[in-house]
Amino acid sequence: MTTHRPAPDQPPADLYGRRRADRAMRVFHTVAETRFRWSTLINRRSPAGRVDDRRLALTVVQRRVEARDTDVISLLLTAPDGRELPNWRPGAHLDLELPSGRLRQYSLCGDPADRRHYRIAVRRIPDGGGGSREVHEALRTGARVTVRGPRNAFPFVLPGYGSDATRVHFVAGGIGVTPILPMVRMAHRLGVDWTLVYTGRSRDTIPFLDEIESFGARVSVRTDDDHGLPTAADLLPRVGPDTAVYCCGPVPMTTVIAAAVREMPGVELHSERFSAPPVVDGKPFAVELARTGEVVTVPADRTALEQVLAARPDTAYSCRQGFCRTCKVRVLSGTVDHRDTVLTPDERADGDMLICVSRCDGDRLVLDL
């Protein structure tokens, strides 16, 4: 199968406003093609969300407001001694250990070619779990923060190197643009045939708008206040066979896209959500907290984590999607219906469980909590 790759336009500026010379870009293309061919093959053999236990102490060297409503900030992180940081691929994220002890994941949205800096962006969610407020309030320029990773549960697979697609269509909703942005930049640099639909409530609320629009006519920005809520046709224009769709955004958006793609033969779907998925085919069960004997009931449409948090608010959690391991607990009694994507067979045999997604295959579990 031949991949059609039109000549790339002039690349948009990097994080520092620089544009690469043509010769440098040709060298970059060659090196990146080779590296990503091997890295995507390796990534496809790795379990989704494989944990990287590296802990890095980094410094916030830049803090910027990235949306006009000021609710989104970006942080540029670097090693205190200026050394190179571990490399990463588009779609990767960092785990931030916040001063309060909370652990939160944020997508890397900078340039993988920049080995001295990591960039993340965080939207303030006033009624959330507190992590975003803490980032906005505590992580000022000069602050130290410990991170884990990078690791990747949303890998970008280039057409021709592990993907049967010949073109790529991206869909980003609001802050969901963060993992998509490095994918777009890589696709653009390598001459991949790509398009992007970027949605949000209004132009004031969506981050990195100038950076996104610098890619030109391949990008369509549509906001709810100007266009109304988008339909599947709005989000997936001209998507047909041999297209890979990468999307990240609110659950209603990703749900609409998933339903539409199921009716599109030959279309690949790769998605990441930034909230907990709905419980599917759940049945009620009881959870006993062994250290106190307290019993909580888990309804069919709720997770064990939600109910445990009601009784034990200090229970550690982060992704709520079954890949970060933060909520892993030992099961002392009962049979687990494992729904995570990361525990090994040995870990499951040893009685480990991720209570954010996994359930009971029966009526009762006893947890070492």
Structure, described:
- With 369 residues, the protein is of the alpha/beta class.
- The chain starts with 21 loop residues before the first helix and ends with a strand.
- It has helices at residues 22-45, 131-138, 177-189, 209-213, 224-227, 232-235, 251-261, 304-311, 345-349, and strands spanning 55-65, 72-78, 92-97, 103-107, 118-123, 144-152, 167-173, 194-200, 219-223, 243-249, 268-273, 285-289, 294-298, 328-333, 336-337, 352-354, 359-360, 364-367.
- The strands form 4 sheets. It has a 6-stranded antiparallel sheet, with helices on one face. It has a 5-stranded parallel sheet with strand order 9-8-7-10-11, with helices on both faces.
- The model is unreliable at 1-52 (pLDDT under 50).
- Helix content is 22%, strand content 28%.
Summarize the structure.
This protein has 369 residues and is of the alpha/beta class. It contains nine helices and 18 strands.
What does the largest sheet look like? 6 strands, antiparallel
**Percent of residues in beta strands:** 25-35%
Strand order of the largest sheet: 4-3-6-1-2-5
Shape label:
globular
Tell me the number of helical segments per DSSP (H or I, 4 or more residues long): 9
**How far apart are the first and last residues' alpha carbons, in Å?**
54 Å
Secondary-structure element string: HEEEEEHEEHEHEHHEHEEEHEEHEEE
Task: Report the count of strand segments.
Answer: 18
Task: Give the assembly state of these chains.
Answer: single chain
Q: Rg to the nearest angstrom?
A: 21 Å
Percent helix: 10-25%
Structural class: alpha/beta
